[in-house]
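Q: Here's a chain of 499 amino acids. Please give me its 3D structure as tokens.
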Amino acid sequence: MSHLFDHHGAPGKGYSQPAPVLPATEISVPSSLVRKQAARWPRISEPEMVRHYTWLSKRNFGIDTGFYPLGSCTMKHNPRINEVIAQLPGIADIHPHQPEHHLQGLLSIYHEMQHMLEVCAGMDQVTLQPVAGAQGEFTAVRCIQEYFRLRGEDQRTKVIVPDSAHGTNPASAAMCGFEIVEIPSRTDGRIDLDALRAVADETTAVMMITNPNTLGLFEADILEASAIVHDVGGQMYYDGANFNAILGITSPGLMGFDAVHFNLHKTFSQPHGGGGPGSGPIGVKAHLADFLPGPIVKKRPIMGDEAKHAIEDMWFGWYEPVHSIGKVQQWHGNAGAVIRCWAYYRRYGNGLKTMSEHAVLNANYLRHALHREAEKAGVSDMIVDGAETDVAKHEFTISLGPAKESHGISAMDIAKGLLDMGYMAPTVYFPLVVPECMMIEPTETESKETLDTFAEDFAKVLQVDAETLHAAPITTPVRRVDEVYAARNLCLRHPYDED
């Protein structure tokens, strides 16, 4: 175990810094700002610090460590070329307050990324400012809210969400002050149009839904659902968490949506986990474009002496939408995340459709492989499909309900057992409409060999006795934790004494 915080060393040692620019006699620090004692940070040598952070890295699990089939999170491989491009001096070493003629390269990348996302989603305008999917949801709903206010339609106070929706959907809408109306899914896991008709009226502002839905099923009735909402004057919002399944095949615009958020840290390979950094741009149809948070990059003809700084005979500059809801994030979003995703798209742009096709293929292959291996091991009666369908999209659900009933083994037990097998566990207990649910998303970047091995090991975990699984994991740096206690008693820093 690392003892970095127990290393205090000799005062003034363990670090180096350049000599002050001004003589000490010319430096005046107000007495109220002078420390009464030396800071309590560790004073250690470089090898000691390297060992500490290496030790920390070995206690964590990431996509570079092993298979990460976390449903709804699209934990794909992050190509290293993206990192090289994001760290180029002309990108990494600039400041957003520099004059526009210093930023033409970055602004041209922003503009191209906006356009690429517009094409992929079938939208008319994109802002790159939001830095998370949930913030993208909030931003889009706020744009719709202001759209209705400008039209004098203040009676629209209701947001409709299906019971399989991501939890951030109702949370984001509630933050905007809307009433949340949940509608049930049909027995096959898809939206119930009759239930939608029953609640859609002149008080409806938005319906929020993702397609494919959270069970990994494509909503074949989405055009009819859009028509129901539009007929009462409402707007359709597309949660882009599952965008990885449809690139180049269809788009939210074709499905009748008015606004969409993108998870660049899922679909377009920006590394994520541990809270970020993410990027959640939104795209909207033309009637909502004036409400987007600014600034947005626009291009125009060159004027005056701009020619010597211009790119491709065009000038790129910032533009503020006329009815903008205002900023939702500092500066202009997570620039590094946007750059990495731009690099990914530029390298694989012609293959984005193939990417989605392989994501769907991998999900369906693994789905059937799990049942195949469970049958070989004689434990096929312990799992069932979470939805009645022959074809899933990029992710799928299974229910461990039979395992719990017959063997006393829960989905959580299986998840903890998979940690001992060297895998990140799939998502458990979501969506709530599937009992003892496990949601699995292999992504397109995993090989057939990886999927086969995971299916075999999954069947092995099903064969472990209940008592052993209740104690799992036993090989990880941290054993099973009390998650409720951890959530209610946050420890956000090392607990050393302050004296």
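Q: Can you summarize the key feature?
A: The first strand starts at residue 125 and ends at 127.
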